[in-house]
Amino acid sequence: MKKSFLIKNGFKNYSLKPIKSDASFRKFFRIKQKHKEFIFFSSPKLKENNT
Q1: CA distance 39 to 47
Q2: What's the pLDDT score for residue 17?
Q3: Residue ranges of domains in the chain
Q4: Whole-number Å distance between alpha carbons of 28 and 31
Q5: What confidence score (pLDDT) does residue 30 get?
Q6: I want to staple 31 with a disulfide (CB 3.0 to 4.6 A). Which of 1, 35, 38, 39 is the partner?
Q7: Is 12 exposed, middle or buried (0-12, 13-18, 19+ CB in 10 A)?
Q8: 50, 43 in Cβ contact below 8 A?
Q9: Nearest C-alpha neighbor of 18 from the set 43, 44, 39
Q10: What pLDDT score was predicted for residue 43?
Q11: Tell me: the pLDDT tens digits for 1-51?
């Protein structure tokens, strides 16, 4: 899911590293692309309404 989402949204030549999270069920990642940084998170569909 992560890779397909990132490619679909124009991310190329990026690095993706997990970020230590709290007790949440969400997973956080740091995306680095050239001189920009982004935070990406994903959450299980069964735990949260993502719409």
Answers
A1: 20
A2: 93
A3: 3-42
A4: 10
A5: 94
A6: 38
A7: exposed
A8: yes
A9: 39
A10: 81
A11: 678 888 898 888 899 999 987 777 888 999 999 899 999 888 877 655 655
For residue 2, the tally of other CB atoms under 10 A from its CB is 13
The pair of structure tokens assigned to 8 is 């679909």
Q: Which residue has the tokens 């299980």?
A: 44
Structure pTM? 0.69
Encoding tokens for residue 5? 């989402």
Instruction: Give the integer Cα–Cα distance in Å for 19 and 8.
Output: 22
- Token digits of residue 11: 């991310």
Q: Say if residues 5 and 16 touch (Cβ distance below 8 Å).
A: no
The confidence score (pLDDT) of residue 46 equals: 64
Nearest of 5, 46, 26 to residue 16 by alpha carbon: 5
